[in-house]
Amino acid sequence: MPEVSANGLTIHYDEHGDPSDPAILLIMGFASQMTVWPIELVEALVARGFRVIRHDNRDIGLSHKFHGVKGPGIPKMMLMNMFGLKPKVPYGLPDMAKDSAGLLDALEIDQAHIVGASMGGMIAQHFAARHPHKTKSLTSIFSSTGSRRLPRAKREAVQALIRRPASMEEDVLIEHGIKVVRTIGSPGYPADEDRLRERIRANVRRSVYPEGVVRQLGAIVADGDRRKMLKGLDVPTLVLHGEEDPLIPVAHGHDTAAHIPGARIKTIPGWGHDLPLELIETLADEIATHAKAATSRQAEAA
């Protein structure tokens, strides 16, 4: 798998499609490797005329690991978050956005359509705010503004996501991963058991790094409320959110769209906090249509 030096780190990525086509950069979320973006979605976007790039964020998958760099533990971070306090952490979401910008630079891509899911949506928001000249459009998928006034995640969803596996044995890790997906996934689009198991098995064999999960969580908790930043965005924005999301309730999507000037939101019944096969064509259509419209508007304004 190819890698580049970006923002002083080694970032692993892959790309699909014609290099001369407009670029879409997919930024994945908390504790998730780039391979959690379904290859079916990547191929659907390529078929719609895009060059699609996925990458592992720092501290996950095959990208740079901050071995031994300590931050606050999960119980302390959860307690601080309850009281609106920001922990001191090794790095923040703006640093992760800078990693993504550095990847584009390394690939000699001047501008891209930025698409982020969950924590990746938060990173994408920072990308659009801090690197507007590199941002053709923004798509924020089941993400949030970070406002503490919004509904909290369901308790079982949070526990499933942050609970460590009972051991590092492959079978245990696979069963743990299946439980996470079943807990936060789409009630209207339950994943096929065999396909889900094989996808998780492949990800487990690719990389397992629990230490990085804690630091990524710290980056989210320390980031706080982004609403003021979002109000200053001047980029065509699409917000996609599931109406049955137990981890980041749909109110977070509405709040995101409400604070980004001109943003459009589409919510989908039965969709939770995953990327079901049954929604691939719908999501690809929404992302591609939004990206092409943004490109057309920019061409008209030039």
Give an overview of the whole structure.
- By secondary structure, this protein is of the alpha/beta class.
- The protein has a single domain, classed as 3-Layer(aba) Sandwich (Rossmann fold), CATH 3.40.50.1820.
- It contains 11 helices and 8 strands.
- Strands 1-2-4-3-5-6-7-8 form an 8-stranded mixed beta sheet, sandwiched between helices.
- The relative contact order is 0.17.
For the structure shown, list the relevant keywords.
Rossmann fold; 302 residues; 8-stranded mixed β-sheet; single chain; alpha/beta
Given this structure, which CATH class is correct? Alpha Beta
**How many β strands by DSSP?**
8
> What is the end-to-end distance?
38 Å
Helix and strand composition category: alpha/beta
Helical coverage, percent range: 40-55%
Strand content: 15-25%
Order of helices and strands: EEEHEHHEHEHHHHHEHEH
Could you state the CATH homologous superfamily? Alpha/Beta hydrolase fold, catalytic domain
Low-confidence stretches: none
Q: What's the domain count?
A: 1
Number of helical stretches of at least 4 residues: 11
Summarize the helices and strands and which ones pair or pack.
Layout: E1 3-6, E2 9-16, E3 23-27, H1 39-47, E4 51-55, H2 74-82, H3 93-106, E5 112-117, H4 119-130, E6 135-141, H5 155-162, H6 170-184, H7 193-206, H8 210-223, H9 227-231, E7 237-242, H10 250-259, E8 264-268, H11 280-301
Parallel strand pairs: 3-4, 3-5, 5-6, 6-7, 7-8
Antiparallel strand pairs: 1-2, 2-4
Helix pairs in contact: 1-11, 2-8, 3-4, 5-6, 6-7
